[in-house]
UniProtKB/TrEMBL annotation, chain A:
This is Protocatechuate 3,4-dioxygenase, alpha subunit. It comes from Aliiruegeria lutimaris. It comes from the Bacteria. It holds the Pfam family Dioxygenase_C. Keywords: Dioxygenase, Oxidoreductase. GO terms for molecular function: ferric iron binding; protocatechuate 3,4-dioxygenase activity. Residues 46-197 form the Intradiol ring-cleavage dioxygenases domain. InterPro entries: Intradiol_dOase_C, Intradiol_dOase_core, Intradiol_RC_Dioxygenase, Protocat_dOase_a. Gene3D superfamilies: Aromatic compound dioxygenase. Belongs to the intradiol ring-cleavage dioxygenase family.
Automatic annotation (TrEMBL), chain B:
It holds the Pfam family Dioxygenase_C. Keywords: Dioxygenase, Oxidoreductase. Residues 45-229 form the Intradiol ring-cleavage dioxygenases domain. Residues 8-41 form the Protocatechuate 3,4-dioxygenase beta subunit N-terminal domain. Gene3D superfamilies: Aromatic compound dioxygenase. Residues 1-28 are annotated as: Disordered. Belongs to the intradiol ring-cleavage dioxygenase family. InterPro entries: Intradiol_dOase_C, Intradiol_dOase_core, Intradiol_RC_Dioxygenase, PCDO_beta_N, Protocat_dOase_b. This is Protocatechuate 3,4-dioxygenase, beta subunit. One of its GO terms (biological process) is 3,4-dihydroxybenzoate catabolic process. One of its GO terms (molecular function) is protocatechuate 3,4-dioxygenase activity. The keyword Oxidoreductase applies.
Length: 206, 242
């Protein structure tokens, strides 16, 4: 016999199910209940940096857009600082860095407005390219999927990014790079997520 | 000097795997490639924070938070309470717990739910609360009913409350479901059974808690939530810098 390691076990995950909107985005479910729904404003009015829109769809293994997904974004500000007490530095007043969006029930399109994050210091003094951390839950997804959104116009930083470079199969790295375009004077990054099959998005165990 | 370091690796054999064919929707919504394991950086050990300005005190009372003045939701009145802890047994204070559920008849207030059980005009079905300094949270609600779903033709979900918990980092982010002690549908549910381990499934079943029950008023169930624990960095901290 050895001594007992008396750690607790993490509560097991379960799917968010088809009605995740009721709890986390009730306005989309069709009713108003809270004074304030959370997650609509990631950057706030005072954030420095380039205003961008990020949008896409989530596609299943047979190529259909999924119309009941919820996505959460977590990002640093334009200086590469997270709005969190453990990250050194200050963020602008009103900058939360966190957002929550759901897909359109008809089209499966999702999108959020924010500012482009700056590079963040990674492990062992290696700088990470600008990225947005993304968490995806839906009916049929038993445990939330983590991925990262990188930016097409940061090719040099992406090439040196310690996380992208962990992906041995270089062709798969492209699944994490959002495509930049402009629409009515606004910068838009397109980031489609493919859950399964050809060009499947890289997901992380963080 | 002990410094906070990374969070413990998630035990992917304890959680449900992505592809669980008896839960049919998972078949086309599960990645086929392996997850890429990351050592954590600032992107993973930080996460959003919430305060009392974000929510209303009534948000944790689902019996009243959508009811007309003087009315209340119909159903079995229950308190669901417990603590949010990490794997080291430490309380997780000031963290946001969000919950959503069907009404007493198993009907959700959602435009996509067409189940023939009626909507309760005084029940919305969502609530949220911040844990206190001891990691403690509580909701008041009505016990949700079981409901049918199109998986096999005669599948019924056990009574459950969906719960979403943030913790202190994005790597602790968790959505799960709380079931109720004694429900015979639990053992038959393909979603519950996505979890391979019997003991892990048991961790999602709230216990009837007569000590917290308010006599002649409201029954209580206890549901503790455990988030990933965190390592102390004993010798060096290579998360950042050299």
């Amino acid at each position: 016999m050895v001594q007992k390691l008396d750690y607790l076990k993490e509560t097991p995950s379960q799917t968010a199910g088809p009605y995740v909107h009721i709890g986390l985005a009730p306005g989309a479910a069709g009713f108003e209940i809270y004074e304030k729904e959370l997650g609509w404003d990631i950057a706030g009015p005072n954030a420095k940096g380039e205003r961008i829109r990020v949008e896409g769809i989530v596609i299943d293994g047979i190529g259909s857009p999924i119309k009941d997904v919820m996505l959460e974004a977590w990002q640093a500000n334009a200086d590469g600082i997270y709005a969190h007490p453990e990250h050194p530095g200050e963020v602008e007043e009103g900058f939360r860095g966190w957002g929550r969006v759901i897909t359109d029930f008809e089209t499966g399109e999702w999108g959020f407005d924010t500012v482009k994050p700056g590079p963040v210091m990674g492990r062992s003094g290696k700088m990470m390219a600008p990225h947005i951390n993304l968490w995806i839950v839906a009916r049929g997804i038993n445990i939330g999927l983590n991925t990262r959104i990188y930016f097409e116009d940061e090719a040099e930083a992406n090439a040196a990014d310690p996380v992208i470079n962990l992906i041995e199969w270089e062709r798969r790295r492209a699944t994490l790079i959002a495509k930049r375009s402009e629409r009515d004077g606004q910068v838009v990054y397109r980031f489609d997520v493919k859950l399964q099959g050809e060009d499947e998005t890289v997901f992380f165990d963080i | 000097m002990r410094q906070p370091g990374e969070f413990y690796q998630r035990d992917r054999e304890w959680h449900p795997p992505a592809k669980t064919p008896d839960y049919k929707t998972s078949v086309t919504r599960s990645p086929e490639y392996s997850l890429l394991s990351l050592q954590q950086s600032a992107s993973e050990i930080t996460g959003p924070t919430f305060g009392h300005n974000d929510i209303d005190p009534i948000d944790n009372d689902m019996i009243h938070n959508y009811a007309q003045p003087g009315e209340s939701a119909i159903g079995e009145r229950i308190i669901v309470h417990g603590r949010v802890l990490d794997e080291n047994g430490r309380p997780v204070p000031n963290t946001l717990v969000e919950a959503w559920q069907a009404n007493a008849g198993g009907r959700y207030r959602h435009k996509k739910d067409t189940y023939l059980a009626p909507i309760d005009p005084n029940f919305g079905g969502c609530g949220r609360v911040l844990t206190d300094e001891d990691g403690y949270y509580f909701f008041r609600t009505v016990k949700p009913g079981a409901y049918p779903w199109r998986n096999w033709v005669n599948n019924w979900r056990p009574a459950h409350i969906h719960m979403s918990i943030f913790g202190t980092s994005f790597s602790q982010r968790l959505i799960t479901q709380c079931y109720f002690e004694g429900d015979p549908l639990i053992a038959k549910c393909p979603i519950v059974n996505t979890i391979p381990d019997q003991a892990a499934r048991g961790q999602l079943i709230a216990a009837l808690d007569m000590n917290a029950t308010i006599p002649l008023d409201t029954m209580a169930y206890k549901f503790d939530i455990v988030l990933r624990g965190r390592r102390s960095t004993l010798f060096e901290n290579r998360l950042e810098g050299n």
